[in-house]
Amino acid sequence: MFHRSVRIIATGKYIPPTVVTNVDLEQKLNLPSGWIEKKIGVFIRHYAIGETQSEMAAKAIRDALQSVNMTMEDIDCLVGANGAMEQAIPSNAALTKKALGLEKVIPAFDINSTCLSFVVAMDLVSHMVAAGQYRRVVIFSSDIASNALNWEHKESCILFGDGAAAVVIEREDNPRGPKIVASKLATYIEGAHLAEVKGGGTKLHPREYRETNKTDYLFYMEGEKMFRLSMKYIPDFLTDLLKSANCKMDDITMLIPHQASLTAMKLIQRKLGIPDENFMLTIQEYGNTIAASIPLALHDAISQGRVKRGDRIVLFGTSAGLSIGGMVLEY
Amino acid sequence: MFHRSVRIIATGKYIPPTVVTNVDLEQKLNLPSGWIEKKIGVFIRHYAIGETQSEMAAKAIRDALQSVNMTMEDIDCLVGANGAMEQAIPSNAALTKKALGLEKVIPAFDINSTCLSFVVAMDLVSHMVAAGQYRRVVIFSSDIASNALNWEHKESCILFGDGAAAVVIEREDNPRGPKIVASKLATYIEGAHLAEVKGGGTKLHPREYRETNKTDYLFYMEGEKMFRLSMKYIPDFLTDLLKSANCKMDDITMLIPHQASLTAMKLIQRKLGIPDENFMLTIQEYGNTIAASIPLALHDAISQGRVKRGDRIVLFGTSAGLSIGGMVLEY
């Protein structure tokens, strides 16, 4: 067990104003009315129009800081935890520092594990904060999925939305206070190509973009296979995670899953026997917002009063790679 | 000071076989003979042809592991520290796990601060290793610059090469043994757009690629401005870094800079009064290999016997963002 005494002192979010309803998408895709809700349980999602990831991140960060009457002047380090890059170079964190107009000289860098980036960033950065290297850190997740959707692939294009969330953490001096109790990340080679965007990087440069290979630059997902692979490993993974935190599912006030798919989440919930009040669902309102999904759900759980100080919560999910990751923390 | 008792137990490298000489480039670019060497001090660089970053990474990792008779079965965690992404999704680390054919289930994720990714990754991951979360970690940097060069921009296109390096670290139990003594990272907003690749991410999707905007998808650098901005902050930055390590430049056996530009490095060396034997230069052979630059130079310094157990060394450099970063460690 590697307890780290770290307190989440603030959370914030930014959701782009453009709402895309199921009716909008059912018309666009020639789907029968009600098909999308029935298939994936999402009611609406939001698309970023004319906004960048860094601009959205800056708004989520300001929302978090304002809630505790702070500004970026109170922050030591800025960490990006996104699933997508805004530009190939530099990091989203450097661009977000620019979008914030932050002259103060602090470190800015990214941590990337696709949809699990936030959990991995919390895991890594909490060590630095607990050790005293940084006093107060902002971790943000801001993702735009909407411009890399494959409209020929109905199952995935209806699922995603855009959004941003930010969390401020600081060192906790009370050993009985908030802490990260346990964390775990596992990457399974057999899922390396089940969810990907092949193009855009060094392997398939944008100059190679053609009408014939254009889907290589869009999000591709073998949903069914990913689902089966995840379900094969998730129950044991969660058992191990809770065991290393020395607790049982009954001790958990709120399980906050990556909002990947309502069907998959509901199945996990049923399999583990978790009551609705202990299981956070936001996918209906946001869709799957890639890395922003978990911190957005965390923010909503806290601001709706569903998570209170002293509660044990679990952040948990899957990501392209294929990785399964989770964290038990005392809020 | 935040000492972390961590030992570098192995290093390795992989350099793609295709050598590109100054003569090759002078012919291609219609430059007078000898112009490139005089301008930037690089003799040769290597280009990856038909190879991916993950394949190169796998070779560098195997090189490191073989040097200590280990395999990936001995490793707990795989961390990518690159400047460029191979694909938009998933992480380079997940793709490298696949390239290694590694069935063993361990975490794989990326840390990105462009050319400083390796230093930032060492900084973050060493906390986890020192805390006992992972016993033995591979950090790799594998970058392909050659396919995003702007051949109209002579100053930058002649500078870059491709390459990969890997380092294996583990927890050190002897408090007098190897350790990270101090580290520092600083991001300066005024340099956010001095080095970048605007396209390829969510802001400028590959589908927008046109003859008229094609340079937006290539590496852009305001070399002169970057140089002036770096030189403005580097001397104080290094003074602070050494102070936080409680040592002077005389105590440092080897300063290993990011091989950004020979002119800039020579100027820093002269300004700080560092003798040639304490200053590692590899740019002549490799060019600037983005994030692979520092671990490649570290590997060569160790394998050439220029760095020995117990020596104090400094890893140091600048990256797009603009960031300045450094680390003092006892090898």
Question: What would you say this structure looks like, in words?
Answer:
2 copies of one chain form a homodimer. Chain A is built from 10 helices and 13 strands. Chain A is an alpha/beta fold and about 325 residues long. Chain A folds into 2 domains: about 5-170, Thiolase/Chalcone synthase (Peroxisomal Thiolase, Chain A, domain 1, 3-Layer(aba) Sandwich); about 180-330, 3-Layer(aba) Sandwich (Peroxisomal Thiolase, Chain A, domain 1), CATH 3.40.47.10. In chain A, strands 1-7-6-4-5 form a 5-stranded mixed sheet, sandwiched between helices. A 4-stranded mixed sheet of chain A has the order 8-13-12-11, with helices on both faces. The longest helix of chain A has 22 residues, at about 225-245. The radius of gyration of chain A is 19 Å and the shape is globular. Chain A starts with 5 loop residues before the first strand and ends with a strand. The mean pLDDT of chain A is about 95. At the A-B interface, helix 4, strand 5, helix 5, strand 8 and strand 9 of A face helix 4, strand 5, helix 5, strand 8 and strand 9 of B.
Counting helices, strands and paired strands, the structural category of chain A is alpha/beta
**Average of the residue pLDDT scores of chain A:** 96
Architecture (CATH level 2) name of the largest domain in chain A: 3-Layer(aba) Sandwich
Largest sheet of chain A: 5 strands, mixed
The CATH class assignment of the largest domain in chain A is: Alpha Beta
Number of domains of chain A: 2
Task: Count the E strands of chain A.
Answer: 13
- Helix residue percentage of chain A: 25-40%
Radius of gyration of chain A: 19 Å
In CATH, the topology of the largest domain in chain A is named: Peroxisomal Thiolase, Chain A, domain 1
Quaternary state of this entry equals: homodimer
Q: Shape of chain A, please?
A: globular
Give the N-to-C terminal Cα separation of chain A: 17 Å
Largest interface: A-B, 78 and 78 residues
